[in-house]
Design a protein that fits this description.
By secondary structure, the chain is mainly α. It has one domain (2-75, 101-118). The chain is 51% helix and 5% strand. Strands 1-2 form a two-stranded antiparallel ribbon. β1 (111-113) and β2 form a beta hairpin. α1 runs antiparallel to α2 (43-71). The chain starts with a helix and ends in a 12-residue tail after the last strand.
Length: 130
């Protein structure tokens, strides 16, 4: 029973991480397309947009790493993973900056705020494809 519970916890954590990363990637992809479309007319401004997009991507990578670290407090054990210790538990800490609410992925956007990225509420429980 404990093994089954452990497997379920692992599956839930994996799904949450996967959904979070997918939503963030969708949001950043949308923002990049918006930035490039906005600055497509003026080549000089386009270069500025590409630099800003590069900074935004760097911040996104940092944020994803931070989220992965917060989600994987303890090593994840899979039945096919023989190198890890048995009886390792998975802890999912509170994620105060992420609000679970029903919001279509088209409304999810990323904005630069004071040198960081502001992510609006992201729905981790439903996966909608446009």
């Amino acid at each position: 029973m404990a093994t089954l519970l452990s497997e379920i916890k692992i599956a839930v954590v994996d799904e949450l991480k996967s959904a979070m990363i997918s939503k963030i990637q969708t949001a950043i992809s949308y923002e990049i397309r918006s930035l490039l479309a906005e600055f497509r007319v003026d080549n000089g401004r386009r270069q500025e947009a590409e630099v800003a997009t590069g900074r935004c991507l760097d911040q996104l990578e940092l944020r994803v790493e931070q989220l992965e670290q917060r989600l994987s407090v303890a090593p994840v054990v899979r039945s096919e993973d023989k190198e890890r210790k048995p009886n390792t538990c998975v802890v999912v800490p509170n994620l105060p900056s992420i609000h679970l609410e029903d919001r279509p992925s088209s409304e999810v956007g990323v904005k630069m705020v004071g040198g960081g990225i502001s992510l609006p509420s992201i729905d981790l429980l439903t996966s909608r494809e446009e």
